[in-house]
Design a protein that fits this description.
RNA-binding; 6 strands; nucleus; RBD_domain_sf; alpha+beta; four-stranded antiparallel beta sheet; about 220 residues; Alpha-Beta Plaits; two-stranded antiparallel ribbon
Length: about 220
């Protein structure tokens, strides 16, 4: 590049810079200048991302740690808006409502939910390591909180078994039941003898198991 070209380039730069608006305030100053000249441009201000996730997924919940216990435990962090434990709707014929070992909690304040996720993820609670994760608002299902206020009534298995064992049976049903009990008793006796354990099993009173029928062999003609 010759001397004349350098002088011409300097004049053009001075002319472009004189046309730019000069501001004493740094906030109004241009962030960058275009390559082809012209007024300076300012980058748009980036707004900080606001955390709006207030729903938590709680995994690996132990049996016995239900809605009442969870509410009492997690309310120490902040106000709980809604809480729900996923439960089985049907098991065979009975509506047991057993816990599926996971649930969801919604706090009033998203910042509290973030603190709970950081503090409780990997926390050892009743020999179970909790899995706690924030759920983004766009991933929260519309039917997630359907029926969360329903009160859970645990099924009394003792009462169910009592009804099953004390039901009125016919003579034939009672006979089959006793035969089944005696078969289990004979297997138990054989296992004890095979283990060379000296133990005298108590006799089952009230029923005598019939002797097995002998199959007659057919004589050849």
């Amino acid at each position: 590049m010759g001397a004349k070209q350098k002088k011409a380039l300097k004049k053009n730069l001075k002319k472009v810079s004189s046309q730019l608006p000069v501001s004493s305030d740094r906030k109004d100053a241009a962030d960058f200048l275009p390559l082809e000249g012209g007024p300076g441009r300012k980058l748009p201000e980036e707004k900080p991302l606001v955390n709006k996730a207030a729903v938590l997924y709680i995994g690996r919940i132990r049996h016995g740690f239900y809605e009442k216990e969870m509410h009492a435990f997690f309310s120490q962090f902040g106000t709980i808006k809604r809480l729900r434990i996923a439960r089985n709707k049907k098991l065979r014929v009975l509506n047991t409502g057993k816990s599926k070992h996971f649930g969801f909690i919604e706090f009033n304040d998203p910042e509290v939910a973030e603190v709970v996720a950081d503090a409780m993820h990997g926390y050892l609670l009743f020999e179970h390591i909790l899995q706690v994760h924030l759920i983004p608002p766009e991933h929260v299902h519309l039917k997630l909180w359907r029926g969360f206020n329903c009160q859970y009534k645990p099924l009394d298995w003792v009462e169910v078994e009592c009804k099953r064992l004390n039901k009125v049976r016919t003579l034939e049903e009672h006979k089959k039941l006793m035969e089944k009990i005696l078969k289990h008793d004979q297997k138990r006796r054989k296992r004890i003898e095979a283990a060379s354990i000296e133990y005298e099993c108590p006799e089952i009173v009230g029923y005598v198991m019939p002797a097995p029928k002998k199959i007659k062999s057919k004589s050849s003609p």
